[in-house]
Amino acid sequence: MKFLLIMNVNTAVLDALTEDERNEIGAGHGAFMDTITKSGELIITQALADPSQSAVVRIRGGQSVVTDGPFLEAKEFVGGFYLIDCENKERAIELAAMIPDASIEGLGVEVRQIMFSAGPLDA
Amino acid sequence: MTIDAATENLLRDLTPQVLGALVRRYGQFEECEDAVQEAVLEATLKWPSELPANPRGWLITVASRRLIDHIRSDHARKARELTVSFENTTDDSEVAAADDTLTLLYLCCHPALTPASQTALTLRAVGGLTTAEIAHAFLVPEGTMAARISRAKQSIKAAGSQFSMPAPVELHDRLSAVLHTLYLIFNEGYTASSGADLHRGELTRDAIRLTRMVHRQLPADGEVAGLLALMLLTDSRRTTRTTASGDLIPLAEQDRTQWDKTLIGEANSLLEAAMARSPLGPYQLQAAIAATHADAQSAEDTNWQQVHVLYKILERIAPNPMVTLNRAVALAQTAGPAAALDLLTELEADPRMENHHRLHAVRAHLLEMSGDAPSAREQYKLAARGTASMTERRYLESRASAPVPPVGVEPTLKPF
To answer: Is the pTM of this model over 0.80?
Structure first.
């Protein structure tokens, strides 16, 4: 079963982290990637740029309107994700708990099942 | 270079035999498995222009050479001990080859492996599929599948498993694991656990092929025959369960004249013979339920009493809330929707069924039968939200917007 493990991040929480804590998170992600690569559960992982760099595109009256993200005011936004293929939901939850973000006060990892996939899988 | 279907089938049949011969001779399952894959690849390139007189001997020879090459790169000394030619190997060991295939299946379904690893390894080592083909079938990148297969082989090695038949005390559990793995492969193909297409033919085809192979080797086992019959009966409805645009058609609305009579006939013979001589088991019972549906000219003609009794027996020998849920559908036909809704109320207490979309779907169906269209609509909406299959969701959403009382629903084939 495929799941997206979504890391919802909160700027205020991230800003409050110490240098050591940041390094620990980085190392934790490295170890996690290594674990799920070897177990044959990782499909892809990606981290997203800061939402201040986002653009939102709308077509209004046939015209394309591009604005900065309207979500800048939001406290939480998607910071990155792991797309995994694992045994079942219990295993997905177990894996989510191994992601360093899950242990940070104020943050969490969302486990969401995949419903449809398309595109070259080896890209 | 492409190979024709006959050559492909030949290669797939030979793969487990060749692997078995190598592992029996050299041990080292992991290394032998890689060598056989390389030999199969070479065959797909060379056989289209010239099929060897003894394909099995050819594969054993090439795979042995590959194995030697691998070992030579590690230990030059060991390689000298392995310079054995199989060029003139005759097929006098058909019995050993058949036993080897079964031994391989037991090894691939080793309890140290997760079900996902068991299915992947079985398809590769016994099914003769390439890693790329397995990855494609399960919709994951090849690298992900390669890592999973490699981990599975390492786990078998770490568990210290030998290439030999499991001890008699273990045999029953191991055969159950093999049948469960084949069942999972079939189900993955028949009801894709996620994704847009309800049916992925290649996996159901491989599951049937492998189950036939096990049945040939254990013809007296009733559960092996039962599983094969169940697969054939389910597959006989394949072309009638979706519309041209891929929408789901429930059992009650399928065009029964299009059900594959040859498959149904074969399944019925298998099942009758099995039930006459073997103790009843879950696969035989599920096949018997499917056979009862296959027997009926229409949904209304179905012998629901018999379906209900069969589910009751299944519930007793293999208790599971999904079985009870299916029994509720049959009960509604024999005792009315109110009795079935009562049964669902009991089921709700089971934590495994908490908020399960199938519970909502069956309740919706029962409410529809009892004339409560508004409540049925609410339940269909809940069910639609709960499923991870696009096809199922589309169907449930269409029911939510226009409930028409159907008779019976597709019996669940989800593993239990």
So the answer is: yes
